[in-house]
Amino acid sequence: MVLHLILLDPWHSAILHYKDLPISTPISSAPLPREGQKHIMKKTDSHNGNASLSQDDALLGSPPGISAQLSSGPDTDVKPYRTPRSLRTPAGEIWPPAGLGDSAHVSWIREFDWASTSLGPTENWPPLLKQACEMMLANPEPATVFWGRDLILIYNEAYIALAGNKHPDMMGGSARVHWKEVWDQYDPLFDQMFLDGKPFTQDKTQLFIHRSSYLEEGYFNMRVVPLIDDDGSVVGFYEPVSEVTKQTLSERRMYMLLKLSERTSSETSLRGLWRRLLESLGDHPSDIHFAVLYHLHPSTRPGSTLRYDLEGAIGSGLEARGFPQELDIHASGADDIVTSLRRAHESGASVLLTTSDGSLSPSILQKLEAAGMTEAPRACIVCPLSSSVDDSVDALLVLGISPRRSYDEDYELFINLLIRQVESTITSVKMVEKEKEQLRQQALYDSELKFKKFAENAQVGIFSFDPLGNITFCNESWLELSGHDRNDMSAMSWTHDVHPENAAEIKGYWDKLVNLEGPQTFEVQYKKPWRPANLNDESISLDRTWVVASAYAEVSDEGELTAILGCVTDISSFKWVDQLQSHRLSEALELKRQQENFLDITSHEMRNPLNAILHCAAELIETLPGLAETAPTPERSMILRGCLEASRTIVYCGRHQKRIIDDVLTLSKLDSNLLSITPVETRPLDVVGEVLRVFDTEIRTSSIKTKTELAPSYTALQIETLLVDPHRLLQILINLVANAVKFTKGESLRGLHVVVGAHETEPISSEDGVRYVPSGRRPADPTIHPDWGTGEVVFLHFSVQDTGPGMSREEADLLFNRFSQASPRTHVQYGGSGLGLFISRELAELHGGRIGISSELGYGSTFDFYVKGRRPMRSETPNAPNNTPPIIYLPQRPVPKTRLSAEPLTPILFPSKVARRPSRTPSWPLDVHVLIVEDNLINQKILAKLIQKQGWATSVANHGEEALAEINKSTWRQSPVAGCLRAETKLDIVLADIEMPVMDGKDFVRHVRRLQDEGVLARHIPVIAVTGNARNEQIRQAEECGFDEVVSKPYREEDIIAIVLKYTNRADT
């Protein structure tokens, strides 16, 4: 047999059902098995139906053993509830039964029209519902029953106080409807209890409920117990509720007062106290809906106008800017807010304003709303804040009462405690301030004595001005530096001593000081002239005295300006030195400018005739061999061959002179730190081929056997192109190959060997014994800049070996210094300036690399260098066009010395980035017309002849104005010039010098581009500068003026042809 025991504990809000207790077990000593506990209410018989414990017996009370466990909860001092004896009487025809009494609430339930609800008449109610309701009605504490899926409400008389104005409509209605303002948080909980039958408990739950005329804040302890039918399903819930709002609010408000005390107790000034007070009030919006604080203006004295300044506003979205920043509470025509503030100030007592009595008027609420308030209060209090030190009102605090609570006795007590605590803190602060003031006065007196003694002996000027600018103190040093009249201490009289050029600036600093913008440090220029000591030369004196001044604003405890204090230090000597250095710097810059002008002029004037020399000699070399072969007599043939050799010598000397000019310009850039490394996608093999073509004539004339190779490291990396600076590579290689040719051509065994390699990591040493020269500058890595991209880093390596005379190690150590050669006999025998290798070293290091040498006397020399580059960022290398001519290298003959293991350099069918002479094809353009603008008649003729050799037409202009006239007569002009016939001349490209009389090249190209922008010219005109100006800065300036490209003199024939083809082809498309 199984015993089922049902116990009701209204204080623990649980109805307990125990099962599986043997009937023979004494109840007083029966254990309470955990697995047998069920928080349910259930009417049941024994398992076999032979024995049962009646409900009445179960409700008589709990045995001692079980009662002890029920009273072990959080409220152990509460006794278990016992059902009244009348409840044990079987119910008659009326319900609720007579045993529950005849109170108004019970009678109302009996008479309630339950048939109109979803529950139906009470006689049809299930026994479990009736039992639950009877226990709920017998409970003196608030309790309710939720029945069915609709959660139909039935509650006792004590629950009416919690329901508020929801009663009586709520009786028999759905909890989901009548408690809709809080039901979102409970609906999931009830759905879960329908599924698992487990109760839930909540303590001090905050709920906002409509049980009055407003949404009220309340705190409740709730225990919800499922009601389980015979089939085990949950059919409803029993919920005892106790309201703990008063206790919870009391604890919360006491905590707020504690935090307020902690935050404000350490303040030593009223301004700090006001700030902390607002911060603390803003942290507790549940009890302080909003707060606005006005404090007494610091300058207010007894008998004067009462002015209050706004300290701040917090809470409910209020913004301080929505309130008057300053109030005169005695002003006439004051509004309701000011009137309330005046009442509080005059009475010294708090003033309560409520909407119920109209004191919290609509005008006040409108102003609060205009200031940003999101929810209007139903009451607020104006509280005067004073202290016991002088019984004066120090501030007026407006506090908003929470719209979720009524202003009851508890709320009033809280506000009184809050004001008392704040006023206590005000008293403490004012006591401390009073004591500090006494100490300050004493300290001030002592410090003034010390300051006067210090100021009298100080070597710096010291001054003190009042807020109006009157001189209240100054020492002798200040009078001496400023030149001020000691008899004039009037307001701002000291500004008359300031130099006019500095007067506006000093006025600005004075305004910053009086506006309390912080300490200021600035320079002052006085009219008084300054002359360095012990120097009688007035030419090096200053027309004014310079001082540096430091000043700050002295502020009272009330925040008002009382004085401007500062000092001045004479810095005239430093200014004099700066002026002297500036003068010398200007002289140095002018000297540098003159030097650059000299170099530019020299370079330009040397390149112009050099251009003519090289092209005339090249034409002779091209013409004389044919004439020598067809000469009528041997004597004539020998003369022509001598002329041919002389022409080759002229070319060699001209190229040597060009290298010297280039070296001088490069050296100038290096000295000025103007040389830069510019990444260009380059095929390294093209650069090598270009260098060898430069020396083609000398190599063939001197019968030097040349060999070019690719090192295995190069082929292993499968390099086609790299981002490097091809111009710097070309310059280094030209220097090295030029030296190799110069020192080799006088030897019996003449060989030149060039090897190209590549590495993924920086080479530390060379396998052929080359020693890299220690770097002469800070390590440079040009590839870190954005224009180099993020491709893989590659170190490009070159080796140039010759069979020249070689040199000793001591001689080799001198090579890479400025103006240094191996020995004095080197210059006597071979010439040279000693700049080439120094420049090569600088260029290699600028390119992130190094250069070195390996040489042995009598066995030739090897020069190695490497530079740092990157692979270009693209998925694959574009295929070369089928009509691209192969690279042609000089004959490759073996050299006597063994070298690195390498494979022969093979031609690659990729177009070169270095210009080479184009070969004529069937599609070679014949109708090209070139306008040449050149003032030098020789260069004019040479360039015209070069163009005409290609089968192209030329026009010539001596300066920019003539060139513009030619353009106006060409098809480039949209409409003919007034008075002229329709333009017929077709021009394709313009080759223009820069340095010309009348109108130079820069003005010419600017004029052309302006005509293009105005629509006068039909389309873009290619204008190429052909000039002796070769510095990068000059090239950049030319491109900024509008030139499409710049070709430096002396130019090569293939360069000019390639540019003409480039722009005429583009024009055709």
What does this 3D model show about the protein?
The longest helix is centred in the middle third of the chain and has 58 residues, at 572-629. It is elongated, with a radius of gyration of 53 Å. A hairpin with a 6-residue loop joins strand 13 and strand 14. The chain is of the alpha+beta class. 32% of the residues are buried. The protein is built from 28 helices and 33 strands. The strands form seven sheets. Strands 24-26-27-25-23-21-28 form a seven-stranded mixed β-sheet. A six-stranded antiparallel β-sheet has the order 11-10-9-14-13-12, with helices on both faces.
Question: Secondary-structure blueprint of this entry?
Answer:
Elements: E1 2-9, E2 14-22, E3 37-38, H1 55-59, H2 64-70, H3 104-111, H4 127-138, E4 143-147, E5 152-155, H5 160-163, H6 175-178, H7 183-196, E6 200-210, E7 215-228, E8 234-243, H8 245-264, H9 270-282, E9 288-296, E10 307-314, E11 326-328, H10 336-347, E12 351-354, H11 362-370, E13 379-386, E14 393-401, H12 409-457, E15 461-465, E16 471-474, H13 476-482, H14 500-514, E17 520-526, E18 545-555, E19 561-570, H15 572-629, H16 634-671, E20 680-682, H17 684-694, H18 696-701, E21 705-710, H19 712-716, E22 722-724, H20 726-744, E23 751-759, E24 771-772, E25 793-802, H21 809-812, H22 824-830, H23 836-846, E26 850-855, E27 861-870, E28 903-904, E29 929-933, H24 937-949, E30 953-957, H25 960-968, E31 989-992, H26 1001-1013, E32 1023-1027, H27 1032-1041, E33 1045-1048, H28 1053-1068
Parallel strand pairs: 21-23, 29-30, 29-31, 31-32, 32-33
Antiparallel strand pairs: 1-2, 2-3, 4-5, 4-8, 6-7, 7-8, 9-10, 9-14, 10-11, 12-13, 13-14, 15-16, 15-19, 17-18, 18-19, 20-22, 21-28, 23-25, 24-26, 25-27, 26-27
Helix pairs in contact: 8-9, 8-12, 15-16, 17-20, 20-23, 25-26
